[in-house]
User: Fold this.
Amino acid sequence: MSTVLEELNQPAVASYAGPLLRVRDLVKRFPITSGVILQRTVGMVHAVEGVSFDLDEGETLGLVGESGCGKTTTGRCILQLYRPTSGSILFEGKELTTLRGRELQAMRRDMQIVFQDPYASLNPRMTVGTIVAEPLVIHHIGTRAERKERVRELLDVVGLNPQFTNRYPHEFSGGQRQRIGLARALALNPKLIICDEPVSALDVSIQAQILNLLEQLQQELGLTYLFIAHNLSVVKHISDRVAVMYLGKIMESAPSAELYDNPAHPYTFMLLSAIPIPDPSVERSRARRVIEGDVPSPVNPPSGCVFHPRCFRAKEICALRVGDFDPVAGTLAVEGKGGGRHPHEGPLVGAR
Assistant:
């Protein structure tokens, strides 16, 4: 084993028995300002409102929803790229929202991100070798020769030729660039990787290659993923559990198979209904619900359940309050309605 890997694989001083990541009541609001010289806040964009979930070590949690629902903001708040407005983020029992400076930098060795755009996330003036080695340089790990060896190892792990270290990002295809971004994320042997729509900009055949690579690396290295995407089919393929977001809130969370077979919230049901089935006879005969209307403004979100203005099962109670969401069990419950169901009568069937 190289000296770099020995340094990266130093055992932790104390083990943590709880979930690897615990998010509670996460809120992120962006101010809307007016004026040029004397600026004043005239409103707030409610990007993330009260998000809670647990993520166990070695697990993959899929975070899905429409564009603009707060998925990426949630991921960046976890990494402290955005400072949360309020809430708690515990990583191995340590509160991240209070960390600053060197403490936060040291914690980021165990948390990395793979960005959505495989080209924009790579510096076009840096060679692949320099890009992948940058985390090692920042954290002062290994000598120059050891870092070069580590880069070659990483390129081989993600399925690239180790001789490509002197090439620039523009010399690679989209799928190869995403592999470079993944190699950079793996450089420090992290425990958690936030995958921010890592395959949305790629062709379908390349998407399958990247997803298979992510699964292979998880099995070999024991990685934990927060997989952000808007493609429900992709999320079903890779996730152990799925959380559905809408307008900054988590509508529903459940094990992957259970959520796809038996959605509890009408929003989840309608999202699944929009997925085409590659069988014309089944596609023609199945029940389908189309989400009508526009997404409400995050500056002034609806009261109660934020989906009720567009919900085909909305009742008066939906505008007044929302079901009690259990982030650990991943269930919904509303005043006497047990079983983790939505507060409306009758099961939601026929989505798939």
Summary: The first strand starts at residue 21 and ends at 34. The CA atoms of residues 267 and 311 lie 7 Å apart. The two ends are 49 Å apart (CA to CA).
